[in-house]
């Protein structure tokens, strides 16, 4: 390249309208740059020319070095349009936008020997535009991010657009829930015709209309997996969430869905199983207990078994068998249990005696039929035993008794006459009811005193058929059962069987444990039946009355306005009354599982636990104020009394909790405290200035110019005294009102006249505010307490001034509406939130965070005054726009 070329180039470069820099192609040394380029680059010529371009612009090297190399090797220009770039301009880091070109320049041989960089700065335009589009961009970024999220989300997501809910997008998870179905590009209801005409369809359409999301949990949707496949019951958690366009109109709906069919099934099954299990166990007439491990720990037990052991559930669950029943240690059960676990064999024993020692040291001899069955854990290891037993003590006793008599009978066979009477004597003396019925007609052949007593009959019935001896048995099952014993030759046993028997002319319900034992003749036919009966009426009744009294207790506890709970010493809750269920919004089971402690405010748990510990030691109830969370998630203050109930030995047997809502008392207390704080503050202010004026006055009076100031100070002082008088009057009125001593002295006067009179005072009191009055043309007579109504005016106008900007306008209108006089005081002040409006008239109520001083009694007094006149007072307001206060009184009609 000769000089001319270079010169030409330089002229071109210098006069070009854009920034230009020329680099040589090896090493990218800057050879030439025009003023414009330097300006955009923010560099001095001497820092650029003759130097490596990338050393100069090291801050963008990483971004553009490769590109530039590419331009050289491929001989192809590179354009960048309005790209952002962070450059060090004049030593300062700046974000700029540039449009630039790397243009290769070839020599005569066609080789790229230089690169021209053309550059224009667009920072300003971009920024302007950016401002407008920043929002859109942010949206776009959000959308992109959303899109990624949608694709990867672990739930099914679909996006539906437009009123016909065209499916615009589904993520892989969504598609997987409906494999083979074509979704995207089709209207939702066309893809899922099963949904049409269901309430789900309605809910979806409503989302579009209302813009409110809906969600469903564990919702049954009968839907096939593939299109046209068979419909099956599937369960989903899903929601429809509206999507809004820039005009806040719903333009689409997101559907988030998660299939929970498997969970629902397994949950249901588990619930069913455990429920079934517990129900079956308790329904069984047998005693059942599950024992685990070599220590023979009781894992599960039913009611019947507990009754047999005479233990409570908490005395046994989780405890070793021999610890629960140490007196069984020298009986064979423990070793049999271990044997079953070791060998896996089943042990089946009939009529085994089991001997317990009662608490008073006496012996309780019982008989049981029992089986021990081995149980395995999930891994198949034998580690438990299912024990099932039937107590047959009564049966065995009855049989033994019978056997005894039968033996007696045989032994004395030879001495028949004697033995007969002896047998009868034995029967007669027996402590249980015994009778012998003879033949199919059931003639009462023998009846001891005891049986006559329970039958309520005299010896006269001996010799009669049972049906005529006890005519009340007609319609009861006994005669039939006895016939059956004849026919089947099988004895009959029953416990706690109810019978209606006539005692002294009255039918009485009694309960018996009975045995009907057939007696055979030499042909092996039934000749007689021996009845052995034990009257258990008292036990049954006392158990029943216990059940009834428990029921009564529960009813009662549901009716009291207190929350009551009952818990075992280990904290397991056995009862929550209706008050708790209503408060928590949960069922008993859910509340028990969710846990009492979950409802307690976290700050109070520790103190509560310590209190319980203390109470369980001392037996003194623990009383505390604490917060419990209600169904809306709000913590409500309660006074909670946790009373430990101890047995005679001082052992804790249960907890009774009674919990009373004291939220409103707390709030009232708080307001009162605030009030007292405020009163002290408010009264101090005028007192302080009074004090100040009086001190200065004293000082000044000693000086010459005292008198001029005295007038001023006295005026001020009087003003403060007046203020304080009106403050104390306010309190006085409240206390009068509360003690029922507020006096209303009525007279007939003109409301308009009263207003006119008082308005002069307002002009002096509030010289800065323009008070415009629109009064009715005529007089408005009312029969009321003039002074008190004036006080209401004062309060309303005083508030209108207080809660407005200085010097704002206030309007007062006084008009006649039918038979009422209506006064309105309206201002352009700070206004009142809707939720505060109804509470303004409460005593001590002040809208939160107002900086204006006051006590919150003005409106309360005003309301009381107006209501005592049979009138009405209310407010309307819009926050920030001003308030209107109204009151109405009857017009006086003469
Ligand atoms: P006080 O003004 O002494 O607080 P009031 O009983 O007169 O007591 O008023 C109760 C509350 O009602 C005030 O604290 C204030 O928050 C609100 N209030 C009363 N009048 C107005 C009004 N004109 N504009 C806005 N808020 C008002």
Descriptive report:
By secondary structure, the chain is of the alpha+beta class. Helix content is 42%, strand content 30%. The chain is built from 30 helices and 32 strands. Helix 28 (786-802) runs antiparallel to helix 30. The longest helix has 40 residues, at 663-702. Mean pLDDT is 83; it is low at 412-419. Bound molecules: adenosine-5'-diphosphate. Adenosine-5'-diphosphate binds next to helix 28 and helix 30.
Sum up the structure in keywords.
894 residues; alpha+beta; Beta-Lactamase; 5-stranded antiparallel β-sheet; 30 helices; 32 strands; 42% helix; flat; binds adenosine-5'-diphosphate; phosphoprotein; histidine kinase
In DSSP terms (H or I, runs of 4 or more residues), the helix count works out at 30
Radius of gyration: 49 Å
Largest sheet: 5 strands, antiparallel
The CATH architecture category of the largest domain equals 2-Layer Sandwich
The small molecules bound here are:
adenosine-5'-diphosphate
Percentage beta strand: 25-35%
Give the full name of the CATH homologous superfamily of the largest domain: PAS domain
InterPro entries: BphY/WalK/GraS-like, HATPase_C_sf, HATPase_dom, His_kinase_dom, HisK_dim/P_dom, HisK_dim/P_sf, PAC, PAS
Subcellular location: Membrane
EC number: 2.7.13.3
Membrane topology: Multi-pass membrane protein
């Amino acid at each position: 390249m000769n000089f001319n070329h270079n010169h030409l180039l330089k002229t071109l470069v210098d006069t070009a309208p854009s920034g230009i820099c020329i680099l040589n192609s090896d090493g990218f040394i800057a050879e030439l740059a025009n003023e414009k380029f330097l300006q955009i680059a923010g560099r001095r010529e001497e820092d650029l020319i003759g130097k490596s371009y990338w050393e100069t612009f090291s801050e963008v090297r990483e971004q553009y070095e490769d590109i530039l190399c590419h331009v050289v090797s491929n001989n192809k220009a590179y354009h960048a349009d309005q790209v952002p770039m962070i450059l060090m301009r004049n030593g300062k880091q700046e974000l700029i936008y540039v449009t630039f070109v790397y243009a290769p320049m070839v020599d005569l041989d066609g080789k790229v020997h230089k690169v021209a960089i053309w550059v224009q700065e667009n920072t300003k335009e971009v920024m302007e535009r950016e401002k407008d589009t920043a929002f859109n961009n942010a949206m776009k970024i959000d959308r992109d991010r959303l899109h990624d999220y949608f694709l990867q989300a672990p739930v099914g997501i679909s996006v539906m657009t437009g009123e016909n809910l065209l499916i615009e997008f589904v993520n892989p998870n969504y598609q997987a829930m409906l494999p083979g179905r074509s979704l995207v590009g089709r209207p939702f209801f066309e893809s899922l015709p099963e949904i049409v005409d269901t309430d789900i369809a309605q809910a979806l359409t409503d989302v579009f209309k209302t813009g409110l999301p809906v969600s469903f949990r564990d919702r049954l949707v009968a839907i096939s997996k593939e299109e046209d496949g068979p419909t099956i019951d599937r369960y989903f958690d899903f929601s429809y969430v509206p999507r809004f366009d820039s005009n806040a109109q719903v333009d689409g709906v997101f559907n988030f869905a998660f299939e929970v069919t498997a969970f629902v099934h397994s949950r249901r099954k588990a619930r069913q199983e455990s429920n079934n299990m517990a129900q079956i166990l308790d329904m069984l007439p047998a005693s059942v207990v599950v024992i685990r491990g070599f220590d023979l720990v009781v894992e599960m037990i039913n009611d019947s078994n507990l009754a047999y052991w005479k233990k409570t559930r908490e005395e046994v669950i989780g405890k070793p068998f021999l610890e629960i029943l140490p007196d069984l240690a020298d009986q064979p059960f423990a070793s049999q249990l271990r044997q079953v676990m070791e060998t896996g064999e089943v042990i089946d024993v009939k009529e085994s005696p089991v001997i317990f020692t009662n608490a008073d040291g006496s012996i309780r001899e019982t008989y049981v039929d029992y089986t021990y069955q081995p149980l395995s854990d999930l891994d198949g290891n034998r580690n438990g035993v299912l024990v099932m037993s039937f107590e047959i003590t009564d049966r065995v006793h009855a049989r033994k008794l019978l056997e005894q008599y039968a033996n007696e009978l045989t032994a004395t066979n030879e001495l028949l006459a004697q033995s007969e009477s002896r047998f009868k004597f034995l029967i007669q003396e027996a402590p249980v009811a015994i009778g012998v019925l003879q033949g199919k007609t059931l003639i009462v052949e023998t009846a001891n005193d005891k049986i006559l007593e329970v039958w309520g009959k005299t010896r006269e019935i001996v010799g009669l058929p049972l049906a005529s001896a006890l005519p009340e048995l007609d319609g009861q099952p006994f005669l039939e059962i006895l016939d059956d014993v004849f026919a089947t030759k099988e004895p009959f046993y029953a416990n706690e069987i109810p019978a209606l028997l006539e005692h002294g002319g009255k039918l009485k319900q009694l309960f018996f444990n009975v045995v009907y034992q057939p007696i055979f003749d030499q042909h092996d036919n039934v000749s007689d039946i021996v009845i052995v009966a034990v009257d258990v009426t008292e036990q049954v009744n006392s158990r029943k009355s216990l059940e009834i009294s428990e029921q009564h207790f529960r009813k009662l506890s549901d009716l009291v306005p207190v929350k009551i709970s009952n818990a075992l010493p280990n904290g397991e809750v056995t009862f929550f009354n209706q008050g708790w269920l209503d408060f928590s919004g949960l069922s008993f089971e859910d509340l028990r599982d969710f846990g009492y402690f979950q409802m307690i405010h976290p700050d109070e748990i520790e103190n509560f636990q310590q209190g319980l510990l203390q109470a369980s030691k001392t037996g003194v109830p623990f009383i505390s104020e604490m917060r419990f969370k209600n169904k809306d998630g709000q913590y409500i203050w309660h006074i909670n009394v946790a009373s430990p109930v101890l047995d005679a030995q001082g052992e804790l047997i249960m907890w009774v909790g009674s919990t009373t809502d004291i939220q409103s008392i707390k709030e009232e207390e708080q307001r009162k405290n605030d009030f007292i704080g405020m009163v002290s503050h408010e009264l101090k202010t005028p007192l302080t200035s009074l004090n100040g004026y009086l001190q200065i006055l004293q000082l000044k009076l000693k000086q010459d110019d005292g008198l001029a100031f005295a007038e001023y100070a006295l005026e001020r002082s009087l003003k403060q005294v007046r203020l304080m008088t009106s403050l104390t009057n306010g309190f006085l009125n409240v206390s009068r009102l509360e003690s029922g001593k507020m006096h209303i002295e009525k007279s007939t006067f003109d409301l308009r006249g009263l207003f006119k009179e008082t308005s002069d005072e307002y002009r002096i009191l509030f010289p800065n505010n323009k008070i415009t009055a629109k009064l009715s043309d005529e007089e408005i007579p009312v029969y009321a307490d003039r002074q008190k109504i004036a006080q209401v005016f004062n309060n309303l106008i005083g508030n209108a001034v207080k809660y407005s900007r200085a010097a704002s306008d206030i309007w007062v209108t006084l008009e006649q509406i039918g038979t009422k006089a209506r006064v309105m005081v309206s201002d352009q002040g700070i206004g009142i939130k809707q939720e505060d409006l109804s509470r303004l008239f409460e005593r001590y109520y002040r809208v939160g965070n107002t900086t204006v001083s006051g006590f919150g009694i003005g409106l309360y007094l005003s309301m009381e005054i107006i209501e005592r006149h049979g009138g009405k007072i209310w407010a309307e307001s819009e926050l920030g726009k001003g308030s209107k206060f109204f009151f109405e009184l009857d017009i006086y009609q003469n």
